[in-house]
Amino acid sequence: MSRTCKENKTHLPYYDTPDFTPKWEMSNTKTFHQIRPFSLINQQNQTFTEKNIEGKICIADFFFTTCPGICLKMTNSMADIQKEFINDNEILLLSHSVTPDKDSVEVLKEYGKEKGVDFKRWKLLTGDKQEIYDLGRKYYFVEEDEGITKGNEVFLHTENFVIIDKQRHIRGIYNGLDPNSMKDLIRDIKTLQKEN
């Protein structure tokens, strides 16, 4: 899945519902959906909150280090994005662990070193499981596009990547396993940079 702006190359839509219906204008910026304040821990054992993403365009995904399937491909896709924007301080990559009980700071740090993660550009995040699942499902909508609301007891597993802008608004969702969708994502990041 890739929901991007095809007809308007100079402006990305906004999304405020799990079905990802594009909105080309925000009716009320004060009440429009945005990623809520949060508190997690990065691979360098530093508290990481919404204040750390101020002034950044972020690409978020949800993974776990012991995943035998899709997560490795997603990590490779994120590595391609890192490479594309390696010298761009405006771009920040956020990978949230969905098994924070297993993905400790030490595990994430080692995983990051193995996968060539630039710790300045790409944050591997752990913390409270309920916090991560709530963010993923109710704020990033990474699974909810399926039309089924799931509780925290149901494992969160998705290939979706999400772009959020500097105001923490969702601006696109992409399939992290699809090379064409990843090309769309990179193009849309550049569109968003021009918009800002």
Outline the secondary-structure elements:
Layout: E1 2-3, E2 39-41, E3 47-49, E4 57-63, H1 70-84, E5 91-97, H2 105-114, E6 122-125, H3 129-139, E7 160-164, E8 170-175, H4 179-195
CATH H-level homologous superfamily name: Glutaredoxin
Overall number of structural domains:
1
Report the average pLDDT across residues. Answer: 89
Strand line-up of the largest beta sheet = 1-8-7-4-5-6
What's the CATH architecture?
A: 3-Layer(aba) Sandwich
> What is the β-strand count?
8
Order of helices and strands: EEEEHEHEHEEH
- Show unreliable segments: 3-7
Can you give a write-up of this model?
The chain is 27% helix and 19% strand. It contains 4 helices and 8 strands; from the N terminus they run E-E-E-E-H-E-H-E-H-E-E-H. It has a single domain, classed as Glutaredoxin. The longest helix has 17 residues, at 179-195. With 196 residues, it is an alpha/beta fold. The strands form 2 sheets. It has a 6-stranded mixed β-sheet with strand order 1-8-7-4-5-6. The chain has a two-stranded antiparallel ribbon with strand order 2-3. The protein is globular.
